[in-house]
Amino acid sequence: xxxxxxxxxxxxxxxxxxxxxxxxxxxxxxxxxxxxxxxxxxxxxxxxxxxxxxxxxxxxxxxxxxxxxxxxxxxxxxxxxxxxxxxxxxxxxxxxxxxxxxxxxxxxxxxxxxxxxxxxxxxxxxxxxxxxxxxxx
Length: 137
What we know:
InterPro entries: K_chnl_dom. By secondary structure, the protein is mainly alpha-helical.
């Protein structure tokens, strides 16, 4: 359980940092600045640390929510933000489906009858079903 949580946290951190690096590169090349509306310095006088923290902040908010509106992408950063937001909406569903797929035995009904002889099992599910059916007789 802790291993799965650690892997999930590292995966999300990787996604956040990867998109933050993309935002930083787009900001540096002036293809798509990410503007913090409450920042006192101008875009030209932006320090590198401000670019990094603003990009990380915007990346986290875009992945996990819709955002607050205090940081706005422009140019190509808007397209990247759309991709990241879509990824942030789809990823939890994919993880839940994958978890459910891995945690339950794979049972497929061949017909609409509830006859145990008509069940098809894959992998270790056959031995699980056999041990379950033997204990419930």
